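Researcher: If only I could read backbone structure tokens as easily as an amino acid sequence. Walk me, if you will, through where the backbone shape changes along the chain. I have put the entry right below:
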Amino acid sequence: MINNFKTSDFYYDLPEELIAQTPIKERDHSRLLVLDKKTGEVEHRHFYDIISYLNEGDCLVINDTKVLPARLYGIRKDTGAVIEILLLKRLDDNRWETLVKPGKKARTGTEIVFKEGLLAGKIINVEEDGNRIIEFEYRGIFEEILDSLGEMPLPPYIHEKLEDKDRYQTIYAKNPGSAAAPTAGLHFNDELLEKIEAKGVVIARLTLHVGLGTFRPVKAEYISEHKMHSEYYELSEKEAEKINAAKRNGKKIISVGTTSTRTLETIGDSSGFVREQKGWTDIFIFPGYKYRVVDCLITNFHLPESTLIMLVSALAGKEHIMNAYKIAVEEKYRFFSFGDAMLIK
């Protein structure tokens, strides 16, 4: 898949006031821009209208990962200085790859204590990219301690405090492990999912734990030179069969979010069928890539020059996507994690 796309080819102007700082009151009342990937035509709807684009026998694939309250504040044992830790990736029961601020003096051997003595940590290695490996000590269940001490790791472009931390979780979040929410799923509520199932649409679940690499900017001049971060995924045999049954029957696979998309395209064979699998994916999807599994995509609006705007451009065509984004800006859609949605059909 050779191309000469530059990162700058995926730039668009976004007024700062269009970056959504808080979620809207009703999850499914966000706006929905519908893009026809063949013609480039655009419709303006609301998210609860999504049901009219789904047909009996189609398969809607959702990511049931759960965001960890992964931002922790501790005290350095040697100096008493406050230190911020962001959990990125669990390596085993006690060791995590983390992002530490301030990082300059956080050397190997630095010990950190957290309030009430529930948790302590020690930096045991500094990686090449500056991430720190921390070994934690605690009594009890780590997830419960994290729930009492941690904060939701909202993206860097959100400056408002989140009043209800469940609003940065999908309603079907089940498997803890993400450092960020699969935000396309934030628009669904129980009532909408029930209506979708009542219409005969099959809902399949997979897990991909979103890493903070999803927000990492592309620094390479040419996108083919960008090195993608890796993320852990799982798809069970039962859920794989739901997807394959829809494929065999000539029905559509509608992926909810770029995370579900990356998982499906990692697992899918040349005929578009999937199988039970778990592992790590660093798939980088950009124009020139031929989709094997996914037919349609429900997604939010992505950052300029990000790997995610490249992924959606591979499905709908770069010109169609950049034009749709231009329209979204003109129509004052809300952008990014707490923003409005797009259906590429």
Summary: The longest strand covers residues 82-90. The CA atoms of residues 119 and 138 lie 5 Å apart. The first helix runs from residue 142 to 149.
